[in-house]
Design goal:
It holds the Pfam family CTP_transf_like. The chain is α/β, with parallel strands linked by helices. Helices cover 39% and strands 15% of the residues. The protein has a domain of 159 residues: HUPs (Rossmann fold, 3-Layer(aba) Sandwich). The strands form 2 sheets. A 6-stranded parallel β-sheet has the order 5-4-3-6-7-8, sandwiched between helices. A two-stranded antiparallel sheet has the order 1-2. Strand 6, helix 6 and strand 7 form a beta-alpha-beta unit. Helix 3 runs antiparallel to helix 8. The longest helix is centred in the N-terminal third of the chain and has 34 residues.
Length: 249
């Protein structure tokens, strides 16, 4: 008959083994839980955080080139969402004729309504004063603190990026993606920005321009297939651009 001491030692040995086994199981479960919390993208990739594009612009009017650019960047960078942000008072267009913000906002809503990955934000329109990119990024960061942000802009605008307000603070808020039309070459090494902070990708449909669309509209020329159908109808219904002596921007 085993002594009391032997029984105690056997029980203690079993308990230790059980605890070690449970610890291993718990560790595996925790690893699985952490993996489950990561974001699986539409293409099946797993990301630590949601990936969100921010496409700022005057959108006067928004056109198919903007939409194709957003769609292409979303594909290349595996974005979960692209937020379109119509500017309120564009800092570089203070001396230009710019259509009413509400009209530009509504046209952007109409243009993006059919794509579930596209949303529209009023942060710039509702903020008083001149629109600065740094304020847009800070506002979106506050709204989406868990997201990895990608700011989408025209590659030509990137040439002046270090002149933007609080430029040195932008790199910690978002990765910058410059979109360009075919034949437009840009060397990101010449921008004097941190390594890896800016990419440039070519978008064929960017041969379309808002300036040309406004000009065609003011002359009564067709803009079908340059902008989404709903935007054509909005421009026609509200008589946008007909009486404006728009200058190139």
């Amino acid at each position: 008959m085993a002594s009391t001491t032997e029984k105690t030692e056997k029980v203690h040995t079993v308990d230790t083994a059980d605890m070690r086994s449970m610890s291993q199981i718990t560790s595996r479960l925790n690893d699985s839980s952490r993996l489950a919390l990561k974001k699986r993208s539409k293409r099946g990739r797993i990301h630590e955080h949601p990936r969100v594009g921010i496409m700022g612009g005057t959108f006067d009017p928004i056109h198919n080139g903007h939409l194709v650019a957003a769609s292409e960047v979303a594909w290349v960078y595996d974005l979960d969402e692209v937020i379109f942000v119509p500017t309120g008072r564009p800092v570089f267009k203070q001396n230009k004729v710019v259509t009413n913000p509400e009209d530009r906002y509504l046209m952007t809503v109409i243009a993006t309504a059919s794509n579930p990955s596209f949303t529209v934000s009023r942060v710039d329109i509702d903020r008083p004063g001149i629109t600065y990119t740094i304020d847009t990024l800070r506002d979106i960061r506050t709204m989406r603190p868990d997201a990895e942000l990608f700011f989408i802009t025209g590659a030509d605008a990137l040439a002046e990026i270090m002149r933007w307000k609080d430029a040195d603070d932008m790199w910690s808020l978002a990765h910058f993606v410059g979109v360009t039309r075919p034949g437009y070459a840009m060397d990101t090494n010449s921008l004097n920005v941190p390594d890896g902070a800016v990419d440039v990708i070519e978008i064929p449909a960017l041969a379309i321009s808002s300036t040309d669309i406004r000009r065609r509209s003011s002359r009564g020329e067709p803009v079908w297939y340059l902008v989404p159908d709903g935007v054509v109808q909005y421009i026609t219904k509200h008589g946008l651009y007909l009486s404006q002596a728009q200058e190139s921007v």
